[in-house]
Amino acid sequence: MARTMAEKVWEEHVVRRAEGEPDLLYIDLHLVHEVTSPQAFEGLRLAGRTLRRPDLTIATEDHNVPTENILLPIADPVSRTQIETLRKNASDFGVRLHPMGDIDQGVVHVIGPQLGLTQPGMTVVCGDSHTSTHGAFGALAFGIGTSQVEHVMATQTLPMAPFKTMAVNVTGTLRPGVTSKDIILAVIAKIGTGGGQGYVIEYRGEAIRSLSMEARMTVCNMSIEAGARAGMIAPDQTTFDYLEGRPHAPKGELWDRAVEHWKSLATDEGAEFDHEVFLDADELSPFVTWGTNPGQGAPLDSAVPDPASFEDDTDRAAAEKALAYMDLAPGTPLREVRVDTVFVGSCTNGRIEDLRAAAEVIRGRRVAEGVRMMIVPGSMRVKEQAAAEGLDQVFREAGAEWREAGCSMCLGMNPDTLKPGERSASTSNRNFEGRQGKGGRTHLVSPLVAAATAVRGTLSSPADL
Amino acid sequence: MEKFTVHTGRAVPLRYSNVDTDQIIPAVYLKRVSRDGFEDGLFAAWRANDPGFVLNRPEYKEGTVLIAGPDFGTGSSREHAVWALQNYGFKAVLAPRFADIFRGNSLKGGLLTVVLPQQVIERLWEMVEADPATEVTVDLEAREVRAGGITEPFELDDYTRWRLMEGLDDIGLTLRHTDAITEFEKHRKPWLPVTQ
Ligand code: SF4
Description:
The complex is a heterodimer.
Chain A: H1 5-11, E1 14-16, E2 23-26, E3 29-32, H2 38-47, E4 57-60, H3 77-93, E5 96-98, H4 108-114, E6 123-126, E7 140-143, H5 146-155, E8 157-160, E9 164-171, H6 180-191, E10 199-204, H7 206-209, H8 213-221, E11 230-232, H9 237-243, H10 252-263, E12 275-280, E13 287-289, E14 297-299, H11 313-326, E15 341-344, H12 346-349, H13 352-362, E16 372-375, H14 380-388, H15 391-398, E17 401-402, E18 423-426, E19 441-444, H16 447-456
Parallel strand pairs in A: 3-4, 3-6, 4-5, 6-7, 9-10, 9-12, 10-11, 15-16, 15-18, 16-17, 18-19
Antiparallel strand pairs in A: 1-2, 2-8, 13-14
Helix pairs in contact in A: 2-5, 6-8, 13-15, 13-16
Chain B: E1 6-14, H1 21-24, H2 44-49, E2 65-68, H3 80-88, E3 92-95, H4 100-109, E4 112-115, H5 118-130, E5 135-139, E6 144-147, E7 150-153, H6 158-166, H7 170-175, H8 178-185
Parallel strand pairs in B: 1-2, 2-3, 3-4
Antiparallel strand pairs in B: 1-5, 5-6, 6-7
């Protein structure tokens, strides 16, 4: 029978199947960070358990880490405790850890692919919803809660209820200045933040095929913003080229065997999805959010919508509440929305291509008066690469701040936050109330829009410069 | 984990849709390394800034059943959201739709999340707003919610229901199948990466 890619990967990982019970799935890679792991390690300790496969586990420090003065002790005592707890746990339980300052440290979803640990056909989990990022390689990758983190630590498996499959077909060709971030923001606006609930989304079509590996990660990253369990893209030559030669990629004869297998993972001709969505890339333009959930977005060319224009009661109430929080009047052209801060970073858009794109726009220009622009590379390797290309200079000369790697203002657990009432254009993935700091207001944008916005001080695209 | 069979208690009407886990518990409250003490973080921004917020109203102080709008628990996978609700005293959440990860987390941890049709949620809201002393019963055994004149069945798969009613921890259940895991490991693809 013709099967989808997600079904194939699932089937390859079933350890045990029993009538009336969820399938027990084997987990190939477990990524760990400091926020969602302490209670899991503690649970193991209390039960006298160990990690079944520390060799399939890797940890990093990302959510809490400061992005300045990283050689000094962390000022916030609670953040410090969490980092110290991870260090102790990693050492007690034999888990490889990349601590602050280490060359392989970075946001968990940036370092996995970078090390070549994320490969097609794998099951990847992490106590973090943006684990969906790894699906860009054709892996089945999903975020889990702390109880499940403990479960994977103890058993290297997870009991999983079945999912439904959705195809998001993006046809056509992206116009210049339109990026994979705009694709995914448009997808979420179309299907809604609950539209993907219960589904694994497979992104397909020529516009997806033509994306680089990093751009694909941006798309899969935000699958969770559409409510989906996971997002996936079939592995192809782009995937293999990205992986070949990375530290943990297979080598020699194993590489050939692996590639052969990976090629067999693509969804079979004639396989049926439970739901299909179509989007025409030719019609897309730079997209920004105006509200407080990632589905509340619109083309930059348009205006803040009038809540009265929403037919559904729930949507209307949500729009009213969002506009009040965002302090935006209906009908305001989005291009006129003034920001205080521009944040380039996160596991959505903190990779080298993102920094290159932003640098290209800002090169030879200045960050607008009164605007703070922060560049936070997704990992130390990205930072090093960017510096080798002179991008740090480009940003500094424009008046932007050049920081160390971490989650930073994506969620504001470290000192990088918005003040109450401040407004940001951010390349991250969530515009929830207070996400970037209590009372802060967030507009989600692509790196190109972020850079152009920094220059003009209002939401803008490079075409406006 | 505590067993869940039937719970009866007062309810709290939360008339918002899309309540994400950053609202349930903001990131600054995630720094504890144990599973308790998260009640202070529950809906912290709304509790601090909005005097009219439902949890700030004395008549809803004793609520143990939260009744929310669609897409409750979207966003971050933080299980702290479940702990915060439990630490605060909630035993069950009723909503028309839950985000998947939140739902999974809640059912692992013994916080019963119940999916009810939007109209039923609306009627419950009205009932509880008219009389905050209304008692709502969430009966896992019978798989139904009862309040005033309402008796509404809900769905939950047999396996999860059994696990919650027995108060069973997933890890213990899976460890019964260690042989199957060991057997599976013998046949994994030879190129799969190891971290050490
Ligand atoms: S960068 Fe943001 S979304 Fe990504 S893992 Fe960190 S906090 Fe989560």
